[in-house]
Amino acid sequence: SIFTSLIGTSEVSMPVPSQLLRGLPRTRVLAFTMLPCQHHQSHFLPVVHQPASRPPSHIWQSHQQSRSYQTTSVLRSYILTPPQVNSILKANEYSFKVPEFDGKNVSSVMGFESNQLPANAPIEDRRSAATCLKTRGTLLGVFDGHAGCACAQAVSERLFYYIAVSLMPHDTLCELEAAVEFGRALSPILQWHKHPNDYFSKEAQKLYFNSLRTYWQELIDLTSPGEVPDTREALLSAFKRLDNDISLEAQVGDPNAFLHYWVLRVAFSGATACVAHIDGSDLFIANAGDARAVLGVQEEDGTFSCHTLSNDHNAQNDDEVARIQGEHPPSERKTVIRQDRLLGLLMPFRAFGDVKFKWNIELQKCVLESGPDQLNENENTKFIPPNYHTPPYLTAEPEIIHHKLRPQDRFLVIGSDGLWETLHRQEVVRIVGEYLTGVHQHQPLKVGGYRVTLGQMQGLLEERKARVSSAFEDLNVATHLMRHAVGNNEFGTVDHERLSKMLSLPEELARMYRDDITIIITQFNPHVIGAQRQEEQS
């Protein structure tokens, strides 16, 4: 099978939080120490009222309905010990060191580290990392699901194959098709680098393979012998084709009842995607949605600055607002974006799946009427968005940014919006840069406008000193950044008590205070990049 994968080495998976929390003493925690943030809203905001019982994780739902107000009521939480906190934070961490020379090329990537921290149950984020074996380059991606995890799961499994095929020269595609046609053994397209918790849905592999094969057959017809694809066009084509296949598979259905239900779950949920393709000194970011990619640049004085390589596709992006308004009649100008959401419902303006914002009403009704009862009985799935006149309103077309790597470009951070809601991009770059170099650039101590006594100031300075000495308690830089994202207090330092409270919140409360967080951090080799730049210029 073409989906045979070479699994990269991984670290041992740690116990999950639920195992840690059993039998721990309960402690009263005052809610004012952790008031819900208003901007930590779910991507999809259904209008239909939900019953009190928890709906299935795959349907349109919201964990946010109580977040329209703040409360000062008393919450119950657990006090976790530092080892318990560490076990939770490290449960999904992964590291991979890239050989400097793989037999074909000298790599500009030294390695990457990733981690995930759930807020939803189950987590709706996904991550992927793979090496292209038929062409060149490393692929890294973060996928933020909404209305369930089905679409993010499918995209995390499939998108890299579509990109890898899109990058293949015509002759390689012909060799691939001939091997399948005559039943010859196939060598893998990708080498996956996966944590044990990252899985593939085995039941859908044949369906996925058939759709992928149809795609490369069309590419063979559209290209000429000797033709080598353009990376930008390959990324664009892969995103759009996969989204089209997700839509088509849901319309056609499947004789297998499970697969029929699965393809509809995938299509009616959604996922944003931020993907990096790194080949030598060429870095491409393809982004659709509100995940983000940020480059850490080391200045001559040793400090780090951030260079943003993606734009958020939401209501805070004036260009996106103008694009959407321009794609629909003037009569819809006041309704196409309401309350900073697409049709008043969806926060990201670009995403995979989400066929409720792409199909016409007749098609939606037809597919649902012929679909499984489980999907048809759900009110949110049947609900038609308000002011739905001229679909499609949503696209999975990515915005692609190319950057030529320089020796001072030291690392790349790709994160789901759960990271950027808690930390500013410059703060993210500073934390990562200090961790990787071991050099801490002390800024003047800021207290955020709070009045503090000399005793409190001394405590803060002592905490800063302790933080420097314990900075390397995390062996994974993504875990280190996640610790800051969840545990930072108003003074910008990691507060263990706050961290413990945030990690021990029960499922029904955790999503009120933060989103799922997924982080991939890639470290570059400045010596290799410098040599490649000189070779290109000579």
TrEMBL record:
<keyword id="KW-0479">Metal-binding</keyword>
<keyword id="KW-0496">Mitochondrion</keyword>
<protein>
    <recommendedName>
        <fullName>[Pyruvate dehydrogenase [acetyl-transferring]]-phosphatase 1, mitochondrial</fullName>
        <ecNumber>3.1.3.43</ecNumber>
    </recommendedName>
</protein>
<keyword id="KW-0904">Protein phosphatase</keyword>
<dbReference type="InterPro" id="IPR001932">
    <property type="entry name" value="PPM-type_phosphatase-like_dom"/>
</dbReference>
<comment type="similarity">
    <text>Belongs to the PP2C family.</text>
</comment>
<keyword id="KW-0460">Magnesium</keyword>
<keyword id="KW-0106">Calcium</keyword>
<keyword id="KW-0007">Acetylation</keyword>
<comment type="subunit">
    <text>Heterodimer of a catalytic (PDP1) and a regulatory (PDPR) subunit.</text>
</comment>
<feature type="domain" description="PPM-type phosphatase">
    <location>
        <begin position="109"/>
        <end position="524"/>
    </location>
</feature>
<keyword id="KW-0378">Hydrolase</keyword>
<dbReference type="GO" id="GO:0005739">
    <property type="term" value="C:mitochondrion"/>
</dbReference>
<dbReference type="GO" id="GO:0046872">
    <property type="term" value="F:metal ion binding"/>
</dbReference>
<keyword id="KW-0809">Transit peptide</keyword>
<comment type="function">
    <text>Mitochondrial enzyme that catalyzes the dephosphorylation and concomitant reactivation of the alpha subunit of the E1 component of the pyruvate dehydrogenase complex (PDC), thereby stimulating the conversion of pyruvate into acetyl-CoA.</text>
</comment>
<dbReference type="InterPro" id="IPR015655">
    <property type="entry name" value="PP2C"/>
</dbReference>
<dbReference type="InterPro" id="IPR036457">
    <property type="entry name" value="PPM-type-like_dom_sf"/>
</dbReference>
<dbReference type="InterPro" id="IPR000222">
    <property type="entry name" value="PP2C_BS"/>
</dbReference>
<dbReference type="GO" id="GO:0004741">
    <property type="term" value="F:[pyruvate dehydrogenase (acetyl-transferring)]-phosphatase activity"/>
</dbReference>
<dbReference type="Pfam" id="PF00481">
    <property type="entry name" value="PP2C"/>
</dbReference>
